[in-house]
Amino acid sequence: MTDARGNARPNGDGSARNTPGTPCWVSLMARGLDATEQFYGALFGWEFRPGPRPLGPYVRAVLDGHAVAGIGVLPADRRLPVAWTPYFASDDVALTAEAVRSCGGTVGVGPLDADEAGRLALASDPSGAVFGIWQAADGAAAGVTGRPGTPAWNELTTFETTNVAKFYETVFGYDEDAVVSADLDYVTLRLDGRPVTGVHGLGNALPRDRGPYWTTYFTVADTDDAVDQVLHLGGQVLGGPRDTEHGRVATVADPEGARFALVRKTG
After folding, report:
1. Among the listed residues 152, 178, 134, 169, the one whose alpha carbon sits nearest the alpha carbon of residue 19
2. In this structure, are residues 191 and 202 in contact, taking their beta carbons and an 8 Å threshold?
3. What are the C-alpha distances in Å from 214 to residues 53, 66, 251, 259?
4. How many other β-carbons are positioned within 10 Å of the β-carbon of residue 171?
5. Can you list the positions of beta strands (E) in the chain?
6. 171 SS3 class
7. Residues of the chain with pLDDT under 70
8. Dihedral sign, CA of 141, 142, 148, 150?
């Protein structure tokens, strides 16, 4: 569970730009924007600023002046799950979208312009898990990370890792680091030697009514205190807190049911 968004290279204007394939943004599509802002503002200390409007109302979550995540509003006529979605960096979102299609995935939205911020597409892998592709405009600042209230890690829960991991490796150029175990089907995907994301295969233990999904982990100062705050704010605890090799982790959901995880990282 190592943060990967320090893996950046300079633009021509001296600003940082994420290496293609790097997790670079997370975005939540919610139903009630005001209530969602209140929940995450109280939990993580976020403030909110207007963001690009490619898909309707959208705000950027800001921590000490730095954008850390986005929240949009699901159209009332679309029966889509309320969920956090990770975005992966691309130098050309149209080419990456074509690679998704050629590898058996689906592009559901875009590519389209997000005002002056860049270009995006929403896609799903062959198992059905939804993710985003983000091509930042020149000069766009990379999101802040590594402190409480910021994304720390994204992990895919799916049926099996072999074929799904191969899809992401082909699209984004990852290398694979698989766990060799009869009891655990887990693959860490690496970019230039740096862990960037994980794929966890659950087989028949994955709920059929939910299907494969991504989980975003957010750094917190104290996992147990953050869990108490989630409950106080009307959310729910789905698992933990528990100690892991990466830190103390809990899986929770906001009042609308969007899943995410909290982690107090060790070291």
Report:
1. 134
2. no
3. 23, 24, 12, 9
4. 25
5. 8-10, 16-18, 23-30, 47-50, 58-63, 66-73, 83-89, 106-114, 118-124, 130-136, 151-158, 175-178, 185-191, 194-201, 213-219, 236-244, 247-253, 259-265
6. helix
7. 1-17, 54-55, 138-145, 266-267
8. positive
Of 266, 256, 260, 263, the C-alpha closest to 241 is: 263
The model carries a pTM of 0.90
Cα(65)–Cα(80) distance, integer angstroms: 31
Dihedrals phi, psi of 154, to nearest 5 degrees: -130, 135
Read off the amino acid at residue 70: G
| DSSP secondary structure letter of residue 137 | P
Looking up tokens 């494969």, which residue turns up? 212
CB neighbour burial string for 130-142, b if at least 16 within 10 angstroms, e if fewer: bbbbbbbeeebeb
pLDDT at 51: 86
pLDDT at 137: 83
The alpha carbon of 116 is separated from its chain's Cα centroid by a whole number of angstroms, namely 22
- pLDDT at residue number 4: 42
H-run or E-run covering 93: helix 93-102
- The per-residue pLDDT for 143 is 59
Token pair belonging to 87: 């975005």
CA atoms of 242 and 104, how far apart (whole Å): 36
Percent of the chain scoring above 90 in pLDDT:
72
- The residue whose two tokens read 């910021």 is 150
- At 54-63, the pLDDT tens digits run 667 899 999 9
For residue 17, the model assigns a pLDDT of 60
The secondary structure element, H or E, covering residue 172 is helix 162-172
Tokens of 93: 């979102």
